[in-house]
Design goal:
Part of the ABC transporter FtsEX involved in cellular division. It holds the Pfam family FtsX. Belongs to the ABC-4 integral membrane protein family. FtsX subfamily. The chain has about 300 residues and is of the alpha+beta class. It folds into two domains: about 180 residues, no CATH class; about 80 residues, Alpha-Beta Plaits, CATH 3.30.70.3040. The protein is about 70% helix and about 10% strand. The longest helix has about 45 residues. The chain is rod-shaped, with a radius of gyration of 31 Å. The mean pLDDT is about 80.
Length: about 300
């Protein structure tokens, strides 16, 4: 009988405040979808870092005869055969080095022509203008500083370049977008909480006669508050359900059927990452509105 009464009160409360309940559902859905998207975006950035950092190399560019007049690091002329051998020997002694590749000027010119064949500068360059280089793959990409310290400023070395630094700007942009999404999510969540508080207040005021009668017949405070708390929890659960649907649709249509076909060089997150986020979204969708309703009732429903 008590359960039936509570359910009937929940039904009455939802019908009386249908418009405000709908607003709560939409706000919760959008805020939790943004929260889930931010968590997945962070996972995507971590996946991309692990994928690309494992492939990046440190490039040690050697001086050529054209650098002597234009680069202070090469003021003593082009790299000699002895200097190249010494650099290779010292690289082989380092524990952080996994593999060493030597790229000649001819090979560098060939790669440049392939990669930038549409560039207007491609026809104006010659092989002797290209730099020889050592491409070094590290066991741990974060140990770049070891090579930077050992070879920067060395005779015959024009520059030590970490390819990882070229990717940092991209990852910083992605992290910035993630932070912006979190800020929007926080704003939407505040709006949702304010709507929940207002909905509970209106519902409690419109049913003050019923709650007064229940108080007179000896009903406990928790029993009187339960319908209001469950109304907020149900609205939050529906909103969280819509948020989960948005995340699943985003993964299926945006990533699987569009981005993966357009961008082949990125290792995108799988369904396992999405599945791990969905229970968290549902739990937050139920608990946060219920907690907001409980705190509001302690202030506005004097029982």
């Amino acid at each position: 009988m008590r359960a039936q009464f509570v359910l009937s009160e929940i039904s009455v409360g939802l019908r009386r405040n249908l418009t405000m309940t709908f607003a709560v559902i939409v706000s919760v859905a959008l805020s939790l979808a943004l929260a889930g998207g931010s968590l997945l975006a962070r996972e995507q950035v971590s996946t991309m870092k692990g994928f690309w950092y494992d492939k990046v190399q440190v490039s040690i560019y050697l001086c050529n005869k054209n650098d002597a007049s234009s680069d202070p690091n090469c003021d003593k002329g082009a790299v000699t055969s002895q200097q190249k051998q010494e650099i290779k020997t010292d690289l082989e002694k380092l524990d952080v080095v996994e593999k060493i590749y030597f790229e000649s000027a001819d090979e560098a010119y060939k790669h440049y022509k392939q990669d930038f064949k549409d560039s207007p500068l491609a026809d104006s360059l010659t092989a002797d203008q290209m730099q020889e280089s050592y491409r070094v793959k590290l066991k741990d990409p974060t140990k770049y500083q070891v090579l930077q310290t050992a070879f920067s400023g060395r005779q015959g070395v024009q520059e030590v370049q970490d390819q990882r630094s070229l990717l940092e700007n991209i990852f910083n942009l992605l992290n910035g977008m993630n932070i912006a999404a979190l800020c929007v999510m926080a704003l939407m969540l505040v709006v949702a909480l304010l709507l929940i508080v207002n909905t509970v207040r209106v519902s409690a005021f419109s049913r003050r006669r019923e709650t007064g009668i229940m108080r007179l017949v000896g009903a406990s405070s928790f029993y009187i508050q339960m319908p209001f708390i469950l109304e907020a929890a149900i609205a939050g659960l529906i909103g969280a359900g819509f948020a989960c649907v948005l995340l699943v649709f985003g993964k299926y249509f945006l990533i699987n059927n569009w981005l993966q076909e357009k961008i082949l060089l990125i290792n995108f997150i799988g369904w396992d990452a999405v599945i791990k986020v969905l229970p968290l979204i549902l739990a937050v969708g139920v608990l946060v509105p219920a907690a907001a309703a409980f705190i509001t009732l302690r202030k506005y429903l004097k029982v």
